[in-house]
Amino acid sequence: MSLGQRVSNDRQLTRLLQIGVVLEEVVESRAAHHLETLPPDERDAVDGEVETLLVDAAEESADHRERLETLIDDLEAETVSYEEINTLVDAQYGPPEDTDGVLYDQLANEETAYKFYDDLIAAIDASETEFAVDRDRLLDTLTTIREEEKEGAEEVTEIMERRA
Amino acid sequence: MNTADQYLKAIYLAQRIEEGPASTGTLADLLEVSPASVNEMVGKLEDRELVEHEKYKGATLTDEGLERAHNALQTYCIIERFLTNVLEVDEFREEARALESVIDDTVAERLDTIIDRPAQCPDCFDAEQDHCELLESGDHAK
């Protein structure tokens, strides 16, 4: 058991970045599933704002995934493909009942991703390990992604408040 | 998972292994820390009413401590199952132990949306083998 929040070696860092990729793929896949699986009357009720939010979330996740994959490439490791994660999401997916449910799920996605990157950055900061990827580039990438997750959560919250 | 939750999980597992209070020695072995560190943390958990400690016998979880330990073990099971089923990691126990301090329970909950976990989790966790007894290495989802 490893007590204390720190990343101690390249293998641990790689695993955490791979987990980041999967989290992004889950966001991307769930956003697509939400739009496809809402009942027709609910789908009609999904206004342009919510639809745009889901499309943007999927695009942003794909962008984050690519940035993480570049780091993982430098660590000479592989990632799980989007198609594989999409299949796993599909197997376990339970669609939200309505648009509010979609928004809550989207908020959970953004907040979870923010928490993940925040913990990962803290764990890298707490470590003196010299990784196979440049530490500044690694932290720059993760900090930018974390900021975008924070903005994403704020955007969902604003939409939820307007709809309340 | 924070350090307190890692201790609570270790106490829960030690209680199962020893079929009684968790001794300082067993906890030190499970957590790979010194007995002095264990005693200090158990004292803090006792102050928070998560653990009851009896001298020369060991630590026992309170109802609240048990609930938190259960959740922590569930998070750990999700990490192990995710590493095995999704990332296809053979040495999933070692890697789960290394990762658990960095993976928050909210993150584990999201990972849980893509894995197939038994309804009785975490009761099916084998404390001595340090993994779910229903999880086989090579038990990949694809």
Automatic annotation (TrEMBL), chain A:
Ranges in coiled-coil conformation: 54-85
Protein name, entry field: Tumor suppressor TSBF1-like protein
Species, as recorded: Natrialba taiwanensis DSM 12281
UniProt cross-references to InterPro entries, sorted A to Z: Ferritin-like_SF (IPR009078)
Keyword Coiled coil on entry: yes
Keywords assigned: Coiled coil
Automatic annotation (TrEMBL), chain B:
InterPro entries: DtxR_MntR_Metal-Reg (IPR050536), Fe_dep_repressor (IPR001367), HTH_DTXR (IPR022687), Iron_dep_repressor (IPR022689), WH-like_DNA-bd_sf (IPR036388), WH_DNA-bd_sf (IPR036390)
UniProt keyword annotation of Phosphoprotein present: no
A Pfam family recorded for this sequence: Fe_dep_repress
Endpoints of the signal sequence: none
Keywords assigned by UniProt, alphabetized: DNA-binding, Transcription, Transcription regulation
Domain of life, per lineage: Archaea
Domain HTH dtxR-type: 1-62
Listed GO MF terms: DNA binding; DNA-binding transcription factor activity; protein dimerization activity; transition metal ion binding
Family, similarity comment: Belongs to the DtxR/MntR family.
The protein's name: Iron dependent repressor
Organism encoding this protein: Natrialba taiwanensis DSM 12281
